[in-house]
């Protein structure tokens, strides 16, 4: 029943080795934080951050997971691989983040606390953004390798920009969104540019899958204020929530009217599923700064414009001219709006320098803040460095993958990796009257293990 | 590609003008609250209300949005237009609420804080209840106009009843639920009474859409205690959660047994999707008062009874005799149980007057409380005024819409407003063996833009 | 229209009697807690436990409810009966828990507070686990009877193990998960062992129902730290979250690689929907103890192994040899991993006894802790007693049901209890080209009540 080739498959071996290594690292190097003072009625890190931990976790697993279920035959993989790769990345990112944190401070055991998990989830968001670019085209084995290398580059990038340069990026417009998107785009350019167009038959959505996908969008939207404000300082945190909320409402309105213009008088579900969120990305860097309500609305409008224009106009052109097949369009949701967010940070810090009396909010991600007058230049440098590391990292990882692994044989199709129900692929959504003798359907492997449960 | 007629469509122009006006108002009149004292480890408004803000946001966008996806061909519009109109209303309701707040106190800049956003969400709930009455029959352009006028009447009603009369209505049985429902019913009476019955072919549900819809119900149910208690005072807030929870459990049990009786020994999904929530509505006014656990259970039973009887018995009669086509039956979920809740407030304050020693909980929505002995009369007056303003507002808005706009041409059908997948409308749910030559399907416009993502 | 036989059906009568009895008990015996001190800006039980109350409620209604929607024709019942039976159990479990609490302390009125509701939800989780074992085979009437008796045994078991023996089980590996699972298995052994195999045609899943079901899994996963930590003491609560989170990530990785091995090189959705959660169960007893991060990871790996092996290897064998038809496989998700969790508690307390200086975390469910050296023996005794009471209770309840009630006539099929849409059962998922004259479809009762809403 169990065959040796399945035990010694690279996926299984790599996962087992990974988990053993994690248990060694966690067993020898990672401790609990023990800040609690006996007698207190509340554990402060629970009271201050557990709510945000769980909100961000919802965004990761429900938000990203279900947003990617829009593909008609790739729902198991979209939600299932998100689940798998997120858990793997949570464990690994806590280690890579801890490593560079200790490089900055001092070596010795690392004490994890709830904010460490939140930072692990931010890192996982970057991996899932990258996953969006390659969705449907890679194998679970490749995803493990991507997550492994991406986290090293990710934590390095934070070390350079946040720890050393002391750039501001509380919600991660640059270090999470732009990083994950450009890593993914350069990765997919190397990895899948030769993908045959026939695969595209399965790369669309159906009515039900679109409604599932919108569930993902809405959960991301709802908790985006928590994402941007989770680790903001008290006093600035309130602004992070408020600005993010206002920016998101503006990007929704912008998306609807631009979609109506660009899609010939109708709304396109792809725009609504994606560009509505661009306001959260575009206000990420400046969320906790004193940008005023009107500044937040402006970020949302700018993000929504860039994103909808990207999806409607530039997506086909970029695919054609640059050979970049970005399955979920992450460059238009996370990449370009992330750059908008980074530039908003340059502008906001420039204005703040000129009006120092209101510059109350100079608090970055880790509260390491460089109070000099050159913050705008630092922000610009951080944006450039982030794009550089992301693109280099994506190309590097792409070449590694290309050397040692094989892409999915049957793109955008669950049946390669999952036991699927008998009716799979025979739904009338694809073909109202499938001919049972049609050879297209022959190579499916219907599961017969479904009756057991 | 982009045609001028799509740029200059009334929907686009109105949305753009709206957003520009919002940016001017927010830029000149709205500020952040700055209560935070440096050195504190927590921002009090974050600690006390952010959790409730996000719970109520889930109710609005997931709860109302997915509850309305029960229509078989209207899922994009139900969830998508909820998303759009909610964001528009969030921005606008903050302004109308702020205006009447400043009328009551003093003019000058208005400082928003997290409770302002929660109040904006309460206002949005009223608009979505109204949306439920006209679901499937109106255009997005009309929805903007509805939201615009409804918010003016809504904030005026709060000004009269809460600020001036000092009525109690912590969870908004009257000012949110009954208001939204009766506004919607009078609006739909004016607007859509001539709707042809042929449209009804699409006004039913299918198996999958009903399960989506139940997701909405359950999320509404789960966070209803947060809705009723979000802005309750410390000390009373605990009671608001407890009473709402108990009332909701009682309305679920009541709904199941009444449905079983009235539907011929089976359960009807329409009842379960809706009347189970009536306990949350019916306890809204009295949630934070000292009504005792048994009082809370009684509200739930009363709400469930009124709601299930309304759906099963009165819905067809009201449609026939009054010409009111209430798509989601909001009068039975929000309208009548809202009146029950208002009357419960009269009774509870009357009993409290007679037993002053336990009357610890005289805290209303805004903590402006009139401690005199005439609170029961005030509650009754507030209920009457609310119904009056709601019905007048709905009729007024209906006539405005009738003069200047056109209803949806293809009711209960996404294809009028959305690019839909090719298989749309061909699902076997409607017709197991659709005849491809059937003229019914000719006027669909299958999207060809779906392959791009 | 309304027939007497529907009014006097046993389901209706029992539900009405239940609710009347509840109103009498709540009206005479249950009061609000009144700990709040006027002047405080926060109600402590709101600040400390309301978040966890709502997270656990999500797990109960969305998590368990949607996890059970995997059956292709049983979605209404899975989500709907979960909703019904949960609300009934919430009310009743608060009473049974209160009764045994007063037996332990002193009689007199019982003051409910938010933790009482959380404990009511824990109890409901046990009922829903039991429901998973009998899913699709019983009637709503039988569910009421199951919940009634199970709660008495459940609270008795807590009284013996937690109040009297002072066993530790903060997340309920033993008293919730193993209890509910073994109660359910012994119940289903008595009740449904003769179930004809023909019913199995409907006991499988379809593609869309599996994706719905995975929504349930992910919500359970997300909030499991809240489940295990909700009532942990400050200082230990942080560890409960952390350990549960780490254990869950490890069980996800374990599930994926074991599934890949055991299912012939593919992943099986049944494993992913279930065994990924085994880490939460397996760390339940020890979650707030000082087990270190590596101990948490080990619990997750052990839970994932036991669970996937159970689903893949033992499920068919147990069904065949023992005649136990465990619809959802709750013994493999809750039963065996619950035993693993209980044994982990024995080991952890043994190690702690040998290293007393780090034994900071001796805090149990109710903070009644027995500080002697015999804690490991107590833990083992509690595991045995729990299994004994659960198995006896399940057999007892099974015989009661067998004497007085009838099982579902049409297993795994919504049409017996619900008005179903016309297309129900005609979906191509079951049969691509259903023959309309096929007698199989004749006995459906398509609803004609759907047009009304």
TrEMBL record, chains A, B, C:
GO molecular function: ammonium channel activity
The keyword Lyase is assigned to this record: no
Keywords: Membrane, Transmembrane, Transmembrane helix
Membrane topology, as annotated: Multi-pass membrane protein
Localisation per UniProt entry: Membrane
GO terms classed as biological process: ammonium homeostasis
Transmembrane segments: 7-30, 50-71, 78-100, 120-136, 143-162, 174-192, 204-224, 244-262, 380-401
Matching InterPro entries: Ammonium/urea_transptr, NH4_transpt_AmtB-like_dom, RhesusRHD
Primary location: membrane
Domain of life assignment: Eukaryota
Region listing for Disordered, in residue ranges: 423-453
Residue ranges constituting the Ammonium transporter AmtB-like domain according to the UniProt record: 45-403
GO cellular component, one term: plasma membrane
Family according to the record: Belongs to the ammonium transporter (TC 2.A.49) family. Rh subfamily.
PANTHER family: AMMONIUM TRANSPORTER, RH50, ISOFORM D
Name under which the protein is recorded: Rh50 isoform b
